[in-house]
Write a structure and sequence with these properties.
It comes from Nostoc cf. edaphicum LEGE 07299. This protein is α/β, with parallel strands linked by helices. It contains twelve helices and nine strands. Helices cover 43% and strands 18% of the residues. The protein is globular, with a radius of gyration of 20 Å.
């Protein structure tokens, strides 16, 4: 039996798939199988995959069915004792699998190990850190407050935890990973590798509709999370909702192009503070408020330039990739 199954869903990923796979093949831990689910690609994805010569690579092609179904199809082919998912445009540092596997072996009660994420621009030229937390053990209350794992390319999961959580929900076309972590956390502890090991690529595609879509599915998944939560955690609901609207405010402010979008961001910011007034103490909320106020006076383009966070500078350290 293989130790780790790495599952990569790929749909029209010709621009990034080879770089992504390279980051897997360069892992310091080598006992893995690499399962790529070609999810009905119509570009050169499959052609490029066939140029890779490595016995660990297994390619399965299906008609397009979406990310969740592709991950589920990957699970059905997996033979590993542990499983890791990687989106076709994200990257791993070389020690990602080695250190996460060590964390799970050190904590047999843990079903999932996660690391820290480094966010990168679409062209992989600008980098900024994610939220670096060290939550371990029973993390259900922390998950209710935020998806601190950040993305689906992050964790390594025991096969037994996969079996207890079931499949990814294909009815969710966004934040399906957060929904899955909730289901794992109902039965298993989590372990952490306190090191940035995932490079998550942010795409600028369809930003005009992304906020509305995100809001819909974030609220669905959060409601599911609270339905499964014990009574003593129900008092976190307003804070959880405020965190969601704080996040959506940031998305709105980052991509505004006209006055109506500025007003829309303001409505989400007001909802954030109304749900949980203490959130005004957070620097993130204060920064969004300042940015929104500047946009009330200046054009969105000028305001975005003047309030651009310094944290997006290229000087942020990037983990070694090769």
């Amino acid at each position: 039996m293989t130790t780790i199954s790495v599952i990569i869903p790929a749909y029209n990923a010709e621009r990034t798939i080879l770089e992504t796979i390279k980051s897997v093949l360069q892992q310091t831990f080598s006992d893995f199988e690499l399962i790529v689910i070609n999810d009905g690609s119509t570009d050169r994805t499959l052609e490029l995959l066939k140029t890779i010569e490595d016995s660990r690579l297994k390619i399965f092609s299906y008609s397009n069915a979406g990310l969740s179904v592709a991950r589920n199809r990957g699970i059905s082919h997996a033979t590993g004792e542990f499983m890791a998912f990687l989106d076709a445009d994200d990257l791993w540092t070389p020690d990602k699998l080695e250190l996460q596997l060590a964390a799970l072996q050190k904590h047999p009660e843990a079903g999932l190990a996660y690391s820290w994420t480094l966010n990168m621009s679409e062209t992989a030229e600008i980098f900024h850190p994610g939220h670096n937390v060290v939550y371990e053990g029973n993390v259900y209350d922390k998950l209710l407050l935020s998806n601190f794992i950040s993305n689906g390319s992050n964790p390594l999961i025991r096969k037994q935890a996969i079996e207890s959580a079931g499949e990814f929900d294909p009815t969710l076309s966004s934040v399906e990973d957060w929904d899955y972590w909730f289901r794992v956390a109902q039965h298993w502890d989590f372990a952490v590798v306190p090191k940035p090991q995932i490079l998550y690529r942010h795409s600028s595609k369809s930003m005009s509709t992304k906020v509305e879509k995100m809001e819909k599915y974030l609220l669905i998944v959060l409601e599911r999370g609270f339905q499964a939560a014990p009574p003593e955690l129900q008092n976190l609901r307003n804070q959880s909702l405020a965190n969601i609207y704080q996040y959506l405010t940031g998305m709105e402010l980052a991509h505004v192009t006209n006055r109506e979008q500025v007003n829309q961001a303001g409505r989400k910011l007001w909802k954030t503070v109304s749900l949980y007034p203490q959130i005004l103490r957070e620097r993130v909320t204060q920064r969004y408020l300042m940015k929104w106020l500047v946009m009330q006076v200046l054009s969105p383009r000028i305001a975005k330039y003047l309030t651009r966070p310094f944290s997006l500078a290229r000087s942020v350290a990037v983990p070694r990739l090769q």
